[in-house]
Amino acid sequence: MMEKIQKVLMIRSVTIREMLAEALGMYILMVFGLSSVAQVVLGRQNFGQYLNINLGFGIGVTLGIHAAGGVSGAHLNAAITITHCILGNLPWIKLPAYVIGQFLGSFTAAATVFGIYYDALYDYSKGNFTVTGPTATASIFSTYPAPYMSLPGSFFTEFLATVMLHLGILIIHDEKNNRALRGTEALLTGILVLGIGMGMGMNTGYAINPSRDLPPRIFTAIAGWGTDVFTAGQHWWWVPITAPILGSLTGVFIHKIFIDFHNLPVMGSGNEKGQPAVEVSTL
């Protein structure tokens, strides 16, 4: 019976399969991440602290990579996908499918978390969904800069955080260097995101990913928060789109200048001996 269903539902197009994998991986990432923010904010920190948010996104990244890694490489980040296209690692023709999948998963995750916590949102805000103020709730879904941040400072924070993200990913996967043990890449990438949140999250909420920030922002604009989600924070909305792209490219440049251009492949390293065959993310 299952074989018949599989034959009917199986998608032959590699590009569509990659899009669906990105969608599911992003959905998993965002449900864990956004729900952890919702629980901390709406629970008035009685059900978790800032570290819970860092852990939620770290766990979401790890599971999202495991879900999509063997199919699409689990980019789960439009900035990383664009960087791969610029470097020639991914055909430009695949860019729309990857980004659509990521945006679809992220938007759907925002809607899911909104549904899960609707009653709590209504109770917390008395039905008045606001972007700023003492009962603001828009930051559950998308990032906003702290009140003390300037726009250039916010841009630099997002830029540098994304530099560290892609630099860390390249180090984890560097075949010519002391790469991580095969099978641990997803966990280490989740820990990497955890570390970025713990060290660089205060200023802007560490979006570091256009696919993490823009779709939920669009959802909140539709779901009752209005156009304030695009004007708040000195029209901050464009920063989590552009700064991560530039940061991702810079992270690659730094890795190549300091490490990659000068390294010869490591032959017969311990990572290549006796390691089981597993699905590996090609972030």
Portion in beta strands: under 5%
Individual helix count: 11
User: SSE order, as H and E?
Assistant: HHHHHHHHHHH
Q: Quickly give the structural class.
A: mainly alpha
Percent in helix: 55-70%
Provide structural commentary.
The protein is mostly helical. The protein is built from 11 helices and no strands. Helix 7 packs across helix 11 and helix 9 (210-225) runs antiparallel to helix 11. Mean pLDDT is 92; it is low at 269-283.
Can you give me a brief rundown of this structure?
The protein has 283 residues and is mainly alpha-helical. Helices cover 65% and strands 0% of the residues.
Keywords for this structure?
283 residues, mainly alpha
Write the layout of secondary structure elements.
Blueprint: H1 2-9, H2 14-42, H3 50-72, H4 78-87, H5 95-116, H6 118-125, H7 151-173, H8 185-200, H9 210-225, H10 228-235, H11 239-258
